[in-house]
Amino acid sequence: MYDDHPRQACSLGPPAACLIDRAEKSVLAMLIAIMATALSACTPTPLDNATSFTRNGVRFTSPEAALEARRTEAEISLASLPTETDPVLGKLRIVIPDQDRLRPYAASRLSDQSRRTPVEIRYLVSDGDLVMHIDAEALIRTHAFQHSETIQINDTLDPDSGDADFVLWFQIAPQPYSTSDAWTGRWLVRRVSSPAIQPVGFDAGTRPLSTAAYASFLKNIRQAALNLGGKTMSGANPLATSAMIKTSGSGVIVDERGHVVTNDHVVPACRSIHVFNGNHDVEAVVVGRDTVNDLALLKLPMATPRAAVTFRNGAALRAGEDVIVTGFPLPSLLSSDMSITSGSVTSLKGLHNDTRMVQISAPVQPGNSGGPLLDETGAAVGIISRTLNPEAVDAALGAPLPQNVNFAIKAEVILPFLSANEIGYERNVATRRISTPDIADKAQKFTVRIECR
Fold first, then answer.
1. How far is CA 276 from CA 269, 340, 406, 448, 449, in A?
2. Which GO terms describe its molecular function (predicted)?
């Protein structure tokens, strides 16, 4: 229909031919316009195309400007960190996930589906990448280890150690036992010569990107390396004495075969684990771990005819519900007998809207970790996980934190872990409330003290 000179062809042809020629050209132009629009929609929008961007209540000219402000804040904090005078002996490999691996983790952090816009997700991916590189830079600049290197890879589930003595990696994985698209991420440390893995992180209550936050991160990684059997350049290792108690906590007997569930951080890298079962001190072994959800399963060398805990059956926890905590807080300072405290459920989510956790007001002290959280029928609805340090929050935020802000792992997370390890736990069908002293009597039978040596 068309030749090299369409206008001449139209002018020389009859009027009808000219009209058809113009109509087809019009259709062609429309098709080209539609294709151009479709192609432009497939082109990613750069971060800096946004005219403004708000982060934590602060408005920036663009997402890139917000990232640059974060980078500057972190650089100022790193400059205030002291250099380690006695580094950990050996080489540390720091493994950071690449941006493809960070993307599902970043998206799952946005609990509000309406906020999962391309710009918001790309910002969180870029921010995560920036922050993790800064975390690694803090270790390298301060010479926390004799030698350090940083690599970035896609699969950070269980990265190769290469020629390093220690591996520090940010593990990103689908949240276990979850039916949603939730992903979890956490820093883990392992020593190449040991199968043990220890989670590490920043102290609760420290402000992100602050000098105090980075100092706590370095301290915790150094402590983890020593827990795993490492030594410093001078040869010192304050954990070298096998009889030294590294950590202590509580646990819950979950069946009559001698299985005990507790927090993973209670038994991080122990030469031996001692469980005080009534008047008996027995040595246990770890037979299962879930480092993502901070759970560990121990096995005692004998059966436990004492009544195992029963888990609540039926109704989920409700905000405002009364709960009871039993355990062995500060055993070297307080009584070695089991303690019992009471409070209520103050929130059905933990730190940063963590749906695996529940927030409670019942007083909790070091040593309560791993102990049961019970309802008014004496059934377990979770195990104690952590507490916030009011002094640390006061120092970081300039405002006092109300006391008794504590957290427990929900039974909905614990039970699939037990099932995965083929533990036949019991469910409680009772609905009658019993007195607190009666609950304490029941808890005496399944609450144990744990020492990691």
1. 19, 17, 25, 6, 5
2. serine-type endopeptidase activity
DSSP string, 73-134: HHHHHHHTSPPPSSPEEEEEEEEEE-HHHHHHHHHHT--SGGG--HHHHHHHHHHHHHHHHH
Query: Is the pLDDT score of 10 beyond 50?
Result: no
* Per-residue pLDDT at 122 exceeds 60: yes
Q: Whose structure tokens read 């790193």?
A: 78
* Delimiting residues of CATH 2.40.10.120 domain(s) in the chain: 245-453
Tokens of 245: 């108690």
Q: Which phi and psi (to 5°) does residue 221 adopt? A: -70, -45
User: pLDDT of 283-305, one tens digit each?
Assistant: 888 888 887 788 999 998 887 76
- Total Cβ atoms within 10 A of residue 109: 17
The CATH number, out of the four listed (2.40.10.120, 3.40.50.450, 3.30.428.10, 1.10.760.10), of the domain defined by the range 245-453: 2.40.10.120
Give the tokens for residue 177.
Answer: 């036992």
Query: Rg of the chain over CA atoms, in angstroms?
Result: 29
Contact (CB, 8 A) for 232 and 89: yes
Q: What is the pLDDT of residues 83-109, one digit of tens each?
A: 998 999 999 999 999 999 998 888 877
Cβ partners under 8 Å of residue 369, min gap 6? 249, 250, 262, 263, 265, 266, 327, 384, 385, 386
Tens digit of pLDDT for each residue in 409-418? 999 999 998 9
Average pLDDT in the chain: 80
Long-range contacts for 433-439 (Cβ within 8 Å, ≥24 apart)?
A: 433/376, 433/377, 434/376, 434/377, 434/378, 436/324, 436/340, 436/342, 438/378, 439/324, 439/340, 439/374, 439/376, 439/378
User: Distance between CA 94 and CA 137 in Å, rounded?
Assistant: 10
Dist. CA 431–CA 449, nearest whole Å: 28
pTM higher than the cut 0.90: no
Cα(102)–Cα(263) distance, integer angstroms: 27
Q: pLDDT tens across 184-193, in order?
A: 888 999 999 8
- pLDDT for res 149: 96
